[in-house]
């Protein structure tokens, strides 16, 4: 299991922030897709249309089928998710720091006050990649 932290502005305090650390059983932060199309024609011809990779093409899906969130975590994540247009920062144990739009949040009660979840994030920019300052096309 990997620990990630999602943080963003606190709607009740203009100078404060909300930060939630939680476990992600299956975490693959670098599973990015290249925007490309390969067209195979007659007589063995191949045309490659490569639009490259841009940060804003990257989406992240965090899910847990194990009850890893507490009720306090769910409330804090809802506080981030309900904010219109808010940019959150996702950090992880690999040294990645990514600004994201918190698109989807679906917690499900599992056992007593422990929750499973599905979170959808759209990457807006990458500040650090594997602990190194990153300058990636946006």
Q: What would you say this structure looks like, in words?
A:
By secondary structure, this protein is mainly beta. It has a single domain (2-29, 52-133), classed as Thrombin, subunit H. It contains 1 helix and 9 strands; from the N terminus they run βββββαββββ. Strands 1, 2, 5, 6, 7, 8 and 9 form a 7-stranded antiparallel β-sheet that branches. A two-stranded antiparallel sheet has the order 3-4. A hairpin with a 2-residue loop joins β1 (2-10) and β2 (13-24). The longest helix has 11 residues, at 71-81.
Order of secondary-structure elements: EEEEEHEEEE
- Number-wise, the strands total 9
Q: Quickly count the helices.
A: 1
Integer-rounded radius of gyration: 18 Å
Briefly characterize the structure.
The chain is mostly beta strands and 138 residues long. It has one helix and nine strands. Strands 1, 2, 5, 6, 7, 8 and 9 form a seven-stranded antiparallel sheet that branches. Strands 3-4 form a two-stranded antiparallel ribbon.
Write the SSE topology.
Elements: E1 2-10, E2 13-24, E3 36-40, E4 46-50, E5 59-70, H1 71-81, E6 87-92, E7 97-111, E8 114-129, E9 132-133
Antiparallel strand pairs: 1-2, 1-6, 3-4, 5-8, 6-7, 7-8, 8-9
């Amino acid at each position: 299991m990997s620990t990630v932290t999602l943080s963003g502005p606190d709607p009740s305090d203009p100078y404060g922030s909300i930060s939630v650390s939680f476990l992600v059983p299956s975490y693959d932060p670098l599973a990015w897709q290249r925007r490309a199309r390969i067209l195979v024609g007659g007589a063995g011809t191949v045309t490659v249309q490569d639009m490259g990779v841009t940060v804003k093409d990257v989406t992240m899906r965090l899910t847990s089928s194990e009850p890893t969130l507490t009720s306090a975590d769910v409330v804090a994540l809802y506080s981030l998710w309900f904010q219109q247009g808010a940019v959150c920062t996702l950090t992880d144990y690999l040294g990645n720091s990514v600004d994201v739009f918190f698109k989807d949040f679906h917690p499900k009660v599992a056992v007593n006050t422990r929750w499973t979840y599905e979170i959808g994030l759209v990457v807006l920019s990458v500040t650090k990649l594997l602990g190194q300052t990153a300058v990636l096309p946006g």
